């Protein structure tokens, strides 16, 4: 009798919709024995880099799903993002990780970067969402009953009054898909999200919006755990 090999995977993690759906599909397809979320943070480790969310919020999200989380602070000295990402991959390879899951949909330049970095590290990349249409990604997430809030939007692309803090829904997606110059999945940075409940969660995350901040390119909601 042979034992079926079950891989250990890492997921490039922002806490948002694309990585969540990619993880969901990877679990359905590959039934991994272990899942590790790899989250890149700012230099002092207090904030997740991609969506302007606190590192603590990422930790609570991982706990709500019963998954391992590795957070790596990106250091400007010593190679920047890529070197820090490779450091995280190396730490997880020690635990037996052989594959990396990524939420890329159609951006060839980013996929090429992922493939090169994975090859240099010695792991195999998996792209569960690759080739899906942007609208299909969001509709799939909604249909799978994930609950997702918009936590940041790009200035000049979307109105904060209309979109910031709203949950993804079919009516909201219908609005996004007919807006000129807007990718309905936000693949060009139009908006970013945070998933707080769904089929991978053992319990939902409760939070409230305590304020709004901005930089030269984005508006952000500040989320406080309850």
TrEMBL record:
Residue span(s) of domain Diphthamide synthase: 7-220
**InterPro entries, sorted:** Diphthami_syn_dom (IPR002761), DPH6/MJ0570 (IPR030662), Rossmann-like_a/b/a_fold (IPR014729)
Q: Which domain of life is it from?
A: Bacteria
Q: What is this protein called?
A: Diphthamide synthase domain-containing protein
Q: Which organism is it from?
A: Porphyromonas canoris
